[in-house]
Give the backbone structure.
Amino acid sequence: MTPRALFLPLALLALAACSGPGYHRIDEALNDECPRSGKRISADALTIYRGRIVGFCKPECRDDFAAHVGERPEDRAFFDRLIAATYVEAYSEAHVEPATAR
């Protein structure tokens, strides 16, 4: 195989390695508590939702959410509220009103 022909298989392999369980860091998660149980999230129960790292208390919850995201409106609403809050916070920080001159 030529180097060019190897690029796609190697790129796909690297992508798979970076997206599997255990790759994401718990300190990068959007939430601290599981949307289902209210317990602390676990490092082995992280996944991606709308481009954000989100966590659950156990891998079974994560796997269920990932496999049935369209059928889990409560989980989606929980994460969507947190995502919206980060946008509001970022907007507020970027648009601080200047002090008025006296």
